[in-house]
Amino acid sequence: MNDGGTVIPDASIAISGGRIVWIGPSADANSLPEATNVIDAAGHIALPGMVDAHVHTAQQLLRGKLAELSRKGPLRNPPWKNYYVPFEGLLEPEDVYLSGLVAYTNMLMVGTTCFAEAGGPHPDEMARAAVDVGIRGFVSLSTVDQNTGVAGRAVPDSMVMSTQQAYDRNVALVKRWRNEERVKAWLSLRQIIVCSPELITSLSDAAKDMGVKIHTHLAEGTYEVDYALEHFGKRPTEYLDDLGVLGRHLHCAHSVILSPNEVDLYVKHRVSACHCAFGNYGIGIPRLQEMWRRGVDIGLGTDGAASAGTLDVFQVAHVARVGQQASVGHQFHTRVPMSAEELLRIATRGGARALGIDDQIGSIEVGKRADVILVRATDPDQIGALDPLFIASTVVVGRDVRTVIVDGRIVMKDREILTVDIERIRDRLVKRRPEIMARFDALVA
To answer: Using an 8 Å Cβ cutoff, are 356 and 213 in contact?
Structure first.
């Protein structure tokens, strides 16, 4: 996934101090110093780890719940305000820690080595779980300082802060995690509907001062566009431009319902974005191809298990390929508007760019952090194909990942997580989830 698109047929990779220090043909590896640990990856493809550029950790235990509720009656829209945020408001710190353990081990097992948390309750517990599991990531706090009656039920009181509280808690979170190597914190704004202009501008200033990003949702629904037009006379991105907050520090999940002028603003201000293919095509026609071609820093995201059902970014890329064929390809009579290889690049290098750490991860290159996954290429579903780039981009899904290295540390080997006890996590989940769901069912009944 480097600039040259290099593929080495029979390669070796040397890692030291958490970084990649050498890459080359295996025949030349004899000149290297003797390694402390050697992984025999014959029959495997080495890739940079996937990057999930938008995930909701605290919604992990909601996986499949909305599908269950939909069989009892029609769901209220939008889900984030009617179900997801109310669910988050029910969680205790230990529930969020458990959610993190479940989500982050799941990520490793499908080849994701880095994530960007969208903003949830008790983000310190997310960070604690990420450190224990051994994944790389950015956590953030669900941030709401105004409760409008737009888009369904009100945000629970437990999830609403004063403007000053929202600012202080965000800044304090970033400071608490600034010295951790793999896990750090960002600022967050849930959405323009529930965030005041004073909070938006103050956190934008803080992001610039502290050198971190703000994770937010933007252009995610027609109700949001209507709200912005009614209250500000501008579309959502134009409103943020008027506030002077657009820039590389702003990371905008979804970014679906964008006018041509709004895409121009993304390009002009280097706003980063995330395409969540499992949900975005139900909202509108995403501008993924246009944004990628115009140089917008955009990655792929699952949007979390509650929304997508899966945390497998390989599957997100496959869905995005079909979605682009239907929305862009059909419209312009283009058979392959975005190739599988290009989407794999967005899932790795694009995600790293969107998170602002392209100089550290996203490709297998000397000097970068050693976030590497090994994908088996000899299963029946891959037999007959010889091109490793074709296999990796078109055929592979997360369950094909065998070994995962994060920051030079082996965190999964031969499908076994080495950092935490999976069976113990399952036992805790069996005991705790029914209690949480009983409270949630009573809330949304």
So the answer is: yes
